[in-house]
Amino acid sequence: DVQLVESGGGSVQAGGSLRLSCSFSGAIAGSPFVSWFRQAPGKEREGVAAMYGGGNPMSPLTTYADSVKGRFTISLDIAESKVYLQMNSLKFEDTAMYYCAAGALRWPDALKVDSYQYWGHGTQVTVS
């Protein structure tokens, strides 16, 4: 079974940076993806960034929500079994619980909540 544990959340001022980490264990058969989602109070969970886990590590296949393009970067360290989300130029509207997710899915569904089988418990990010 796949297990995911997030860390690295916290409070930061607008314009600042944070790096979230997701430690994972287990293997995913088929077309593996790892991703980050977020959920703000009163809002639906939304996809932030996703990466295809089976591609060329020198040119990873990634996708981002329009709201974070150019500010957030997802990366995968297979040797360390970690997925990272580097968040720069943080805005108040980035405040949310951030979740790591993994699963076997198709590329067009990479930022869809229902596509993922495995989830972490989340880490809170607060931007003031």
Describe the structure.
The structure is a single chain. Helices cover about 0% and strands about 50% of the residues. The chain has strands at about 5, 10, 20-25, 30-40, 45-50, 60-65, 70-75, 80-85, 95-105, 120, 125. It is mainly beta and about 130 residues long. Strands 2, 4, 5, 6, 9, 10 and 11 form a seven-stranded mixed β-sheet that branches. The protein is globular and about 40 Å long.
Number of E-type strands: 11
Number of helices: 0
The helix-strand sequence is: EEEEEEEEEEE
- Return the structural class: mainly beta
Average pLDDT, rounded to a whole number, is: 94
Q: Distance between the terminal alpha carbons, to the nearest Å?
A: 37 Å
Q: Poorly predicted ranges (pLDDT <50, ≥5 residues)? A: none
Shape: globular
Largest sheet: 7 strands, mixed
Strand content: over 45%
Instruction: Give the radius of gyration.
Output: 14 Å
Helix fraction?
under 10%
SSE order and pairing:
Elements: E1 3-7, E2 10-12, E3 18-25, E4 32-39, E5 46-52, E6 62-64, E7 72-77, E8 82-87, E9 96-104, E10 118-119, E11 123-127
